[in-house]
Design the sequence.
């Protein structure tokens, strides 16, 4: 007797559930949050399950026999619903590979009607196309990462990005890379910002630049 292979069959639902174990927690919606809202969100998310994206390798042969069986059923279900024919899937090779990067230490919004929100990724979330990941070029201690996020929250203003009609502000990856920051040895001091008539700044930044 042939097993039921309809999208809602118990066999496929169970296989999809097991395939989900290959998933990665991701940040799926965040764009319009302010820095204060985002900090609160990640403080809560650090102890709360996030949504999961099934991030499969290009070579499915590296999976175990049980994993491969579950994944093949899962991908068959996806094909039957047209997932392989979507615009994004047609521009992937192979079509199922999402290519999630490792969780960045800092996440940043890049398009809103306010300067970007920069927060420490305490939840260890990977991200889709709703945020930029900030990856320092050298390994930094926790205090320096906290200081870097705090400095960026206080120093990045509208004029450093691109402003579109209606006041929509966008930061491309290259513009994020060009943001000036203090030298690494002084970043930890930026975790305690200095407030002045010009706004919130890092007290160590000027010393570093000099």
Sequence:
């Amino acid at each position: 007797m042939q097993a039921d292979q309809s999208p809602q069959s118990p066999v496929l639902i169970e296989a999809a559930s097991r395939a989900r174990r290959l998933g990665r927690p991701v940040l799926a919606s965040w764009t319009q949050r302010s820095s204060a809202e985002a900090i609160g969100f990640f403080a809560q998310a650090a102890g709360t399950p996030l949504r999961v994206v099934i991030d499969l390798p290009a070579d499915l042969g590296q999976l175990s026999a049980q994993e491969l069986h579950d994944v093949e059923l899962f991908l068959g279900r996806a094909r039957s619903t047209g997932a392989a024919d979507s615009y994004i899937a047609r521009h992937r090779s192979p079509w199922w590979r999402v290519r999630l990067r490792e969780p960045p230490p800092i996440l940043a919004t890049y398009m809103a009607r306010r300067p970007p929100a920069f927060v420490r990724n305490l939840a260890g979330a990977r991200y889709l196309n709703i945020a930029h990941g900030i990856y320092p070029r050298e390994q930094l201690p926790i205090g320096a990462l906290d200081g870097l996020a705090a400095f960026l929250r206080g120093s990045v203003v509208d004029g450093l990005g691109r402003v579109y009609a209606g006041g929509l502000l966008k930061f491309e990856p290259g513009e994020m890379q060009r943001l000036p920051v203090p030298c690494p040895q002084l970043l930890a001091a930026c975790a305690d910002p200095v407030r002045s008539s010009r706004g919130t700044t890092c007290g160590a930044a000027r010393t570093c630049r000099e």
